[in-house]
From TrEMBL:
SUPFAM superfamilies recorded: Clavaminate synthase-like
Any Pfam family: 2OG-FeII_Oxy_2
Keywords: Dioxygenase, Iron, Metal-binding, Oxidoreductase
GO cellular component, one term: cytoplasm
Molecular function terms, GO-annotated: broad specificity oxidative DNA demethylase activity; ferrous iron binding; oxidative RNA demethylase activity
Gene3D superfamilies (UniProt xref): Alpha-ketoglutarate-dependent dioxygenase AlkB-like
Biased composition regions of type Basic and acidic residues, renumbered to the chain: 461-471
Entry keyword annotation includes Mitochondrion: no
Biological process annotations from GO: oxidative RNA demethylation
Region span, Disordered: 316-383, 448-485
Protein name: Alpha-ketoglutarate-dependent dioxygenase AlkB-like domain-containing protein
Polar residues compositional bias, start-end: 363-380
Amino acid sequence: MADISDDNFRPEFKLYKRKSPPPCLEDVLDTDSDGHRKMLYKLELSELAQEQNYQKNISDAASFGLKNPNEWQCYGAHGFPGFQFIRNPFLPGAQRYWVRRCLADYPCKPNVTNLDTQYQKDQLTNPWQQPCSSPNQQTQEKRLMDQLRWVTLGYHYDWNNKVYNEDQHSLFPEDLGPMSALIAEVLGYPRFQSQAAIVNFYHMDSTLGGHTDHSEFDLTAPLISYSLGQSAILLVGGKTKATKPLALHLRSGDVIILGGESRLAYHAVPKIMYAQEEGRLPQCLGATEDQQQWQESQEEVVVGSRVEVGDHPAVALRGAQKGMKDEHEESGDTTYHAYGGHSGKLSGSSDSSAAASVDQRPNVHSKQCPDHSSPNQLCESQGRYINRTNLEDTISRTTLSNSADSQHVDLDGAAKNISSAIRDLSQKDQWREFEEYLKHARINISVRQVTGPGKGFPQKESCHEESDRDMVQSSNTKRTKIGDS
């Protein structure tokens, strides 16, 4: 056991958790100021523009409400290889869609929540829309949402036995999965599969204790974490608590990637902070002048025309991609289907055996990200497994393809749904309830891959961790565990 005197993580956690007197934040890295330049360096993604699928990524990103990837502000941290930070890559208005998904949709059955052991199943069909028990009583909806601490998606972690089980799963969301895979691909993880996620709901007095995420069977795939709502301080350290962590100011829309050497890094959230003054939403969640312009442009993106999204060109190539797919089908060319259209079992087949041994260290040029792991030469030699033909490839590897519930997702339909939802949420009456919730709350979505590419679950193997779900705390409650009230 490590000597407690070697713990340089906990003192930093206690420092930033402190309420009285409040901690000085001058050492917290903040991309809104120049102080971050000492520790953070800009990741240049321009070379990725030369890649075969880059123009597709522009169109695909717009489908999920993301800016042109070449416009993303990406950072690495000196001394923390594999840590990547994207400063709010979302287009105006798009975060509202993901907020609604987290509050109104993801807590619904068959997904698993911390409320499952406290209420009957019929009370938890949709916690956000639970009807009032009486006109003069606080709504059941509000009571449930105040008690909601976490939701798991995809493969549901067994908190009692500390394992992932192959038969405990639901379909991974058809929007969150491919968006996460797209972000992973742009940042050098072309084979990332969105298989599990935990959505944490923080109130202003909540914290997330220091921990590592090591229960997944494939630890070469990164963790992808999204922040929504009020701000937070994130601590990221090393593989042991001997490493003094860096402290980073997270705002709504920011995305964190823990991969490579940082995949098993200790991390924590010691403090939630108001983004502006108390009771106000972050500015990026408010209505903007160009929000309506972007909503209107999305109608054109889906049908294949070139549009301007503010200063970000969105090039829709779906018509050309569909023609490419039809051409392959007519010619009998199976290269497209071997990866792009394949929805076989994760346990592998003859088509996927070559890819099964490929790990997911970042597949990027070392001069772009000097602290990353070495470029994955084997992945580069297996180019047909890496390069997506269109976003349906990504969807095929983000659904639970080893389950009987696998389904083909209509990408154009999904894009239209997102565009329609954002348009609806621009109306005050549609957004008001979500706005009220977020005035005093933060949401975090942490997406991860459980098994390796082309691999199934190991037999009789369990991985243990003190997880995000175990560690979310509130000052007026005990640790939020299954069974706690």
